[in-house]
């Protein structure tokens, strides 16, 4: 058991954590007593680092109802009412999701994807549906979502005219090879068993189909702020992957990774600094209609430093996000590669995996090097 399990969270325990890539690896203390500063629900939590790859896991895990309450808090009723009213007045909603859709469609086309009305996209963890609407409007593909929250399903149906299934992905029992495109934006950090979820995504993706995975990752700001990192978000985030850990899990699930990006994340520094200065309740005080003018002012002022700083981190591939574009191969290999996840070579500093080489594509993304086996190209991006 990790040392961190002895401190911080003292409530009921659902289960002890394990690294999704190294089930038997020792867990070492990474973050102790991280308060819930994002949702404002209270509580203090711990993260432990895998001694093999450095990924952080919430340890111990609280019961499901505690985790589910945090996940519902992403979309408080007041925010949904506010956005619905905006849509009814003809005001734009979901601009960030549509920007995300534009960037994803552009990158998929660069990688060789073809769009048409005969093809279907599933967004797992579809939230309010803005990405799905953007992809439908931009590419003409048929779109569908799945999300665990009934409230977001109603919003997506009423505001964006989308079909969204409610519940966990595995419970939907979609047919094999159902979708040409599957996306999972900020989902994999929430699931209890990422390997099982990735295997299910592989199963429902058509051979030759495309997959996009984006999740927070441990970059410079995470290491600097740790328990005050704005993307930490306990207890909703069960995992924070190192890039090499996520890529290894995707390879093991059978995907061919084509492009790995570290997107610009404006607000990562400003939000983390606000939490360091005492902010509790990021959602209610900065994102909801009842937001507090004082904290909004602090956040706006710190954005002056945040924007150039986070842009620099994007250029140096050290932001707090990783976005992976992959395909399900046309033909399954008889012996698919099972890449070794980078191990920690920094004695006394858990959570720092070994750096392995990667090549850079013409569009600036990192890809597997053609000069050595693909399963060796797991880099700390």
What features would you describe in this structure?
With 381 residues, this protein is α/β, with parallel strands linked by helices. It folds into two domains: 3-62, no CATH class; 77-330 and 345-355, 3-Layer(aba) Sandwich (Rossmann fold), CATH 3.40.50.150. 34% of the residues lie in helices and 19% in strands. It has helices at 64-72, 77-88, 95-111, 130-139, 150-160, 169-172, 194-204, 220-225, 243-253, 268-276, 282-287, 293-315, and strands at residues 27-35, 44-50, 56-58, 120-124, 142-147, 164-166, 179-185, 205-216, 239-240, 256-261, 321-327, 359-360, 366-367. A seven-stranded mixed beta sheet has the order 6-5-4-7-8-11-10, sandwiched between helices. The protein has a four-stranded antiparallel beta sheet with strand order 1-2-3-9, with no helix packed on it. Helix 10 crosses helix 12. The longest helix is centred in the C-terminal third of the chain and has 23 residues, at 293-315. The two termini are 29 Å apart. Residues 1-7 and 333-381 have low confidence and may be disordered.
């Amino acid at each position: 058991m990790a040392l961190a399990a002895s401190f911080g969270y003292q409530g009921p325990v659902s289960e002890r954590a394990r690294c999704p890539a190294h089930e038997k690896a020792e867990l070492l203390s990474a973050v102790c007593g991280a308060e819930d500063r994002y949702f404002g629900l209270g509580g203090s939590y711990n993260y432990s680092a895998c001694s093999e790859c450095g990924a952080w896991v919430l340890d111990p895990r609280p019961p499901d109802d505690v985790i589910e309450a945090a996940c519902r808090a992403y979309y408080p009723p007041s925010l949904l009412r506010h956005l619905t009213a905006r849509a009814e007045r003809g005001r734009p909603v979901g601009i960030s999701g549509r920007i995300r859709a534009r960037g994803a469609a552009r990158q998929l086309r660069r990688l060789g994807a073809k769009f048409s009305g005969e093809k279907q996209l599933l967004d797992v963890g579809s939230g309010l549906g803005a990405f799905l609407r953007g992809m439908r409007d931009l590419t003409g593909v048929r779109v569908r979502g799945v999300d665990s929250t009934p409230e977001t399903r109603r919003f997506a149906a009423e505001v964006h005219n989308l079909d969204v299934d409610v519940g966990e992905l595995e419970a939907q029992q979609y047919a094999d090879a159902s979708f040409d495109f599957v996306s999972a934006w900020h989902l994999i950090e929430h699931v209890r068993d990422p390997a099982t979820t990735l295997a299910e995504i592989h199963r429902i993706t058509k051979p030759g189909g495309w997959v996009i995975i984006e999740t927070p990752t441990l970059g410079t700001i995470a290491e600097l702020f740790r328990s005050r990192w704005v993307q930490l978000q306990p207890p909703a985030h069960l995992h924070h992957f190192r890039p090499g850990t996520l890529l290894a899990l995707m390879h093991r699930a059978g995907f061919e990774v084509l492009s790995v990006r570290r997107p610009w994340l404006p607000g990562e520094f400003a939000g983390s600094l606000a939490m360091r200065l005492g902010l509790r309740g990021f959602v209610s005080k900065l994102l909801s209609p009842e937001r507090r003018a004082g904290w909004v002012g602090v956040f706006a002022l710190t954005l002056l430093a945040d924007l150039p700083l986070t842009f620099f981190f994007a250029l140096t591939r050290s932001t707090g996000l990783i976005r992976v574009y992959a395909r399900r191969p046309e033909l399954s290999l008889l012996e698919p590669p099972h890449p070794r996840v980078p191990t920690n070579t920094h004695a006394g500093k858990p959570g720092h995996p070994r750096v392995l080489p990667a090549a850079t594509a013409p569009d600036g993304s990192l890809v597997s090097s053609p000069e050595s086996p693909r399963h060796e190209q797991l880099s700390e991006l």
